[in-house]
Amino acid sequence: MEQNYIARMRAKVGHEGMIFPSAWGVLWNKDRDAILLEKRGDSKKGYGFPGGFLEYGESPMQAVVREFKEETNLDVRVVRLLGVATHVTDLNSWGDAQETLSMGFEVELVDPDQVAELKVDGDETLDAGFIPLNPLPEMFVPAAQQTLDMVMHENEESNQPWLRESHS
Length: 168
Prior knowledge:
The chain has 168 residues and is α/β, with parallel strands linked by helices. It contains three helices and seven strands. It starts with a helix and ends with a strand.
């Protein structure tokens, strides 16, 4: 299997700090009271948004569409930008310094009937489904929890995207 972009770059740079762009998406259920979240293979607790790091030459919108297909088997299209967040850590779970520049998008199903075809890859994504948002579900890391709160309380009030910075 071919290494992804991050693995190829880390092989060259080692543990030195690097900036990586990522894209993730929010897919609402038809009643807009639950969103599609995933149980991740790299975390024992909480949920994550479908998404991941961009590959070289890929736009953020292309990345979120690709990641949804890879992780959930669903075909989505981007509706709008929700926001941009940065998160800096001196030591990620792989022992590397990293800044993640994360772009969140609201997405919709290309075919609304396709939701019945939801299927996880069993590797990156162990389980996925529409999770009710009252009460807010626990996310896998604090930055994702903060992002979920912003999705719920800032984007429904306005179509203006938000910006967030955090350090750990």
